[in-house]
Amino acid sequence: MADQDLEKPLRTREPARKVSGRLLPKDGVGVAAGVVIGILLIVAGWGVLVSDPLGGEPTATATIERRAPARPAGAPAAAPGGGHGEEKAAEAKPETSRDGVPIVNAGEPMPKAGPVIIRVPGADENGAAKPAGAPSGPPATVQTAMLEDSKFGALPRIAADGKRPMDAYARPQAALRQPKVALVVTGLGVGKDATAEAVKSLPGEVTLAFSPYGSDVAEQIARARRDGHEALIQAPMEPFAYPSNDPGPQTLLTTLPASANLDRLRWTLGRASGYVGVAPLAGGRFLQADDALAPIFTEIARRGLLFVAQGQQESRFAVLAEQSGLPALRAAAPIDATPEAASIDGALADLERDAKANGTAIGLASATPLTLKRIEIWRAGLAQRGVSLVPLTAALKPQGPS
After folding, report:
1. Which among 92, 106, 117, 303 would be 20 to 30 A from 314, CA to CA?
2. With contact defined as beta carbons under 8 Å apart, do 173 and 76 qualify?
3. Cβ atoms 276, 230 nearer than 8 A
4. Cα–Cα distance between 301 and 140 in angstroms, integer?
5. Peptide bond into 247 cis (omega under 30)
């Protein structure tokens, strides 16, 4: 009997299970699972093999680009070539594509597929909406055509088409017939709090001059330009009391050869970009030394920049600048040489009188809280007194490229 049991088949018939009112073999569960897995594999394979699973569904990827509104008729253009309201009549045509991606204005028909850049009017280059009537400032973008690589960083230069940085980065200014005062606040870039307060509180017409020794001077100049200010970089120059009065390790000295002074100047120029010119940091003795000053002025001129400094009638720097082809401006003594409210107010009144007598006057100032407050009070009624506050480049006489 035991032998017969060993010869019996191992598989035995099991009773069927009743599912939902009908019979289903127990191994039917595996069949159903196989069907589900097969369907999932087909879907996954379709997603891998077909790049666009949606087939003919229309799709588009949009990048929003903000753009300033069109210039009203008769208003001064804020073209990158900027200047004093004497812009070219022809305006650049807007882009129609960028890197192969079409550019359309908001409200225009969109492409049926593919990426697109949408322009949104009424905003500046950074995407922030401008309030109606807001004054325009220098172009925010630094133009690579006016940059030259060097061991000191990117240096300004005149572009191949003759455009100079002093023109490209000027604050647009309408032509004015009434007397003009240009005000330059110097010594910025080292004290962050004082610099931030000057940029915030001063109107865009005030030009800001930055020391090259600030750790983030490039960023600070860029911020000042975004807020509408023209900017200058200050070149440390030998004062009369040197070395007891030392403007720093990159000071241009009358005792150094021209090559060494040029290297120090280029170090200063490479600290930032987007400025319209150079102002001295100290420099009383250096500005009186023709032999030392001549190659410096030639270098500044060939880079398409202007120069401004305090100067008395007996100073020769203006004569030397003219010989070098350098657009140069002579400023009066600093308005806050005596740091008292009455003295500052008197110096500002003198600037007004000089402007009315000569058409233009240029003042220098520091960024102390007292000076900033007196400037704010002074400028409040300036227009009613028949005088305009203008950026420094507007104080230049019309002049062609160097």
Report:
1. 303
2. yes
3. yes
4. 23
5. no
Q: Which CATH superfamily is domain 164-395 in?
A: Glycoside hydrolase/deacetylase (3.20.20.370)
Look up residue 260 and give its two tokens.
């060494």
SS3 sequence of 199-233: HHHCCCCCEEEECCCCCCHHHHHHHHHHCCCCEEE
User: Per-domain residue ranges for the chain?
Assistant: 95-124, 164-395
- At 62-77, the pLDDT tens digits run 555 444 444 444 444 4
Q: Residue 154 to residues 145, 147, 181, 266: CA-CA distances in angstroms?
A: 11, 6, 32, 9
Backbone angles phi, psi at 358, to 5 degrees: -115, -5
pTM: 0.67
Task: Show Cβ contacts of residue 255 under 8 Å, excluding neighbours closer than 6 positions.
Answer: none
Q: What is the token pair recorded at 383?
A: 């227009």
Q: Which residues contact 328 (CB under 8 A, 6 or more apart)?
A: 297, 306, 307, 308, 309, 317, 318, 321, 322
User: Using only C-alpha atoms, what is the Rg of the chain?
Assistant: 35
Angstrom CA distances, 73 to 65, 140, 172, 221, stand at 24, 23, 15, 31
For 196-234, how does the pLDDT look when each residue is reduced to its tens digit (9 = 90+)? 999 999 999 999 999 999 999 999 999 999 999 999 999
Alpha carbons 171 and 136: distance in angstroms, whole number: 8
Q: Are strands 207-210 and 180-188 parallel, antiparallel or unpaired?
A: parallel
Is 129:161 a contact under the CB 8 Å cutoff?
no
